[in-house]
């Protein structure tokens, strides 16, 4: 009996322990189950209109598709999915300058400006109000020699949600920003530029005799004594999209077609002086440079941009367009011959666009100009520049051309008028001679035949002057904007081609 009692007691103890373990395991299992249930918790989907008919649901679907399409259109606009965009372009004659102005909107919200369109500039910059440089990231506003009056257009970086300073230690600042300052107080300090900083460059020596050349700094400031100093950042430009109508596009004012071009490199100029900048708010860079507006915009629009320059004496309301993308113009004749020639994107000439000149013709006869004048490898060459007014020819070419032209005008009384060397009292001649036809031949048999008014210029009532200036030799010749006027010029950066044709530019 005692043994059986011990066995019974042991069995009871084992049963108790088993029950306890089972209960404990059950609790753990239930806890894990509850946790898993929480992890798998789902919301019940209930139809918004459980009794809606298929017709009603189809209407809802159409609304949904419209919403999706609008969303995708906005997204496409944000990444610039259209084929082209255009910016109004006018002559600056009404301000007394020889430049062409373009309307430009930058920042978020967009702030409007009037900038000089310049194929010789690699940095786009706008005027900033004194003290705004600190908001842009530059704490040193000391030394500003000029500031904008309260009513002038000035960029306010602090008001732009998309403004971002570029660090001075960045590759963009050290490698691409022209005349950037090397003295960084810290690696994150904003990239600063000073167009009064002394530089040594071959191109500066070449352009020292360029008349009214205002946007390529030479020596310690711009050639006419102007200066600019500020900081560099990136911001968004507001552009007016078009479907490829080019210079003749009629829908560029549509608000529904506006979009943002992100990441535009922009200089915020807090210190500036000189006559160059009294008539404009800054410079739109169209040069051959990694940071220029032209490079940025063209990379999104088929790798090309174009412009058509109205007569340099045209009134303010005579408007043409600077176009990125297709350059087809509805105002030009389909019968107009279009020429093309290689566009020389030579690093030695950067940020300028060089072309290969094969010869200069007067009344069909080629002038005897040494070929070295047009050869970059022999310290010559030629560039197109929208920021230079009068065409500049290196001495050997200049002397031959003016001699040939002046021979035709031998019977017309000479008069003096700066800055020209050959001027004539056209009304003083009994029978003024016919102006000979000038043609500039480029590589590929492309010929520029400008109207007579582009090279024999009406300088004053009754006075005409040979509108060409003498440049240094050795040196580069510059085809200025007056010789380019009333032609559509397309710079195909992707295929390295320059296309041009005579056309009506005014819209």
TrEMBL record:
Residues 100-501 form the Peptidase A1 domain. The keyword Protease applies. It comes from the Eukaryota. GO terms for molecular function: aspartic-type endopeptidase activity. Keywords: Aspartyl protease, Glycoprotein, Hydrolase, Protease, Signal. The active site is at residues 118, 385. Pfam families: TAXi_C, TAXi_N. Residues 134-154 are annotated as: Disordered. One of its GO terms (biological process) is proteolysis. Gene3D superfamilies: Acid Proteases (2.40.70.10). Residues 1-23 form the signal peptide. Belongs to the peptidase A1 family. This is Peptidase A1 domain-containing protein. It comes from Eleusine coracana subsp. coracana. The gene is ga05918.
């Amino acid at each position: 009996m005692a043994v059986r009692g011990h066995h019974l007691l042991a069995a009871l103890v084992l049963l108790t322990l088993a029950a306890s373990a089972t209960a404990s395991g059950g609790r753990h299992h239930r806890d894990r189950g509850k946790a898993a249930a929480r992890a798998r918790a789902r919301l019940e989907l209930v139809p918004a209109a459980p009794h809606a008919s298929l017709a009603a649901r189809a209407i809802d679907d159409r609304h949904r598709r419209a919403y999706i399409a609008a969303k995708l259109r906005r997204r496409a606009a944000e990444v610039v999915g259209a084929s082209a965009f255009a910016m109004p372009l006018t002559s600056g004659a009404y301000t007394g300058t020889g430049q062409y102005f373009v309307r430009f909107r930058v920042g978020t919200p967009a702030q409007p400006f009037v900038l000089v369109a310049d194929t010789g500039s690699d940095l786009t910059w706008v005027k900033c109000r004194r003290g705004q440089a600190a908001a842009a990231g530059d704490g040193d506003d000391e030394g500003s020699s000029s500031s904008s009056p309260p009513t002038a257009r000035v960029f306010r970086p602090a008001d732009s949600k998309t403004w971002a300073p570029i660090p001075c230690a960045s590759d963009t600042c050290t490698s691409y920003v022209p005349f950037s300052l090397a003295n960084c107080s810290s690696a994150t300090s904003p990239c600063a530029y000073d167009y009064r900083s002394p530089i040594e460059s071959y191109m500066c020596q070449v352009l020292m005799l360029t008349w009214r050349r205002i946007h390529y700094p030479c020596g310690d400031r711009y050639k006419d004594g102007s200066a600019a100093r500020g900081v560099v950042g990136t911001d968004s430009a507001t552009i007016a999209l078009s479907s490829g109508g080019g210079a003749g596009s009629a829908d560029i004012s549509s608000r529904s077609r506006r979009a943002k071009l992100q990441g535009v490199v922009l200089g915020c100029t807090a210190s500036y002086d000189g006559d160059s900048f009294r008539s404009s708010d800054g410079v739109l860079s169209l040069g051959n440079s990694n940071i220029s507006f032209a490079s940025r915009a063209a990379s999104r629009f088929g790798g090309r941009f174009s412009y058509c320059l109205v007569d340099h004496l045209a009134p303010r309301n005579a408007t043409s367009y600077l176009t990125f993308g297709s350059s087809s113009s509805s105002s030009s004749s389909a019968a107009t011959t279009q020429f093309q020639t290689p566009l020389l994107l030579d690093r030695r000439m950067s940020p300028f666009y060089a072309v290969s000149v094969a010869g200069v013709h007067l009344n069909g006869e080629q002038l005897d100009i040494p070929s070295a004048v047009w050869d970059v490898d022999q310290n010559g060459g030629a560039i197109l520049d929208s920021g230079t007014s009068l065409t500049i020819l290196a001495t050997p070419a200049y002397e031959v051309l003016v001699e040939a032209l002046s021979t035709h005008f031998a019977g017309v009384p000479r008069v003096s008028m700066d800055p020209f060397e050959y001027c004539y009292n056209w009304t003083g001649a009994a029978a003024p001679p016919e102006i000979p036809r000038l043609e500039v031949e480029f590589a590929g048999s492309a010929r520029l035949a400008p109207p007579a008014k582009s090279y024999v210029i009406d300088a004053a009532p009754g006075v005409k002057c040979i509108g060409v200036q003498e440049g240094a030799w050795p040196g580069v010749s510059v085809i200025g904007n007056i010789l380019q006027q009333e032609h559509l010029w397309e710079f195909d950066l992707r295929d390295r081609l320059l296309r041009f044709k005579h056309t009506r530019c005014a819209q």
